[in-house]
Amino acid sequence: MREISAEAVADTVARLCVQANTCLPRDVKDGIAAARAAEDWPPAREILDRIMENGEIGGGFPICQDTGMACVFLEVGQELHIAGDLAQAVDEGVRRGYAQGYLRKSVVSDPLERVNSGDNTPAMLYTDLVPGDRLAITVAPKGFGSENMSAIKMFTPAATREDIVNYIVDVMSKAGSNPCPPMIVGVGLGGTFEKAAYLAKKAVCAPLDAPAQDEFYAELEREIMDKANKLGIGPQGWGGTVTALKVRVMTFGTHIAGLPCAVNIG
Questions:
Q1: What is the three-state SS of 123-141?
Q2: 185 phi/psi in degrees, rounded to 5
C-alpha cells in the first residue's frame, strides 16, 4: 500500500491556494477570448479586453480581491494510506498558503458571532474514495460575491424541462452583476438536497472545455446558455450578449418523489 504524509498534503494545498488565486487557467482565458470574439456591444468588448489584459499581466497578484473560502476536493485512492490527520493537514495547508501568498483572510470562526479566524480556516473539505493508490487535490477559492447568488430548489417529478431551465436562468437573472459576469454556472440535478449542491459546486470547477456527460445534457447546457445570454446582463453587468461563459450540468440518481436542482455560480 502506498503511503504519503499529511505534511506533503499540507505543502500541496498551500501551493495550490496561491496558484488558484493568482493564475487564470488556460481554458478560462480561451473562453474569455471566444466571448470577446462573439460580443457585439462595444462597452462589453472593452471590458473583456481589459479582463484579458489583466489576465496576461498577472504578476503573482490575486485575480480578485476576494480570495475566497478554500473549497478543497480530494479524490483518495482506496489503496493509499495517509500518515497523519488529513483534515488537519488540509487546514494547515490553507493556513500556510494564505499567509505565504498574502491572500485576504475572509473566514469567520462562527456564522453568527462573526469573528475572523485570522488564517482563512476552516476549509471546506470534500472527499471521494476512488480506485487506486493516488491522491488528487483540487483547491477552489470561492468568493461570496458569486456564492451568495447560488440557489437550490426541491422540484417534484412533475416539473418539466422548461421549468428546470427557466429556474436556472431566473437564478442567473436575479444574480445580475453581483457575481462579476461573465459567469460560470454549475448545475446539480438529482441526489438529495446536499448532493445537488455538491454536484453544482463540482460543476463550477470543471474545465470549460470538458465535454458534457452525454448529448442530452449537452443540449440542455446549450439551451440554458442561449437563454442566459439573452438576458442582456453582459460582462460586469454593462450589457451585451455574453452573460455566461459556460453552463455545466452534473447529475445523480434521485428519489421517485423528488427532483433537486442546485445552481452554483462562479
A1: CEEEEEEECCCCEEEEEEE
A2: -115, 120
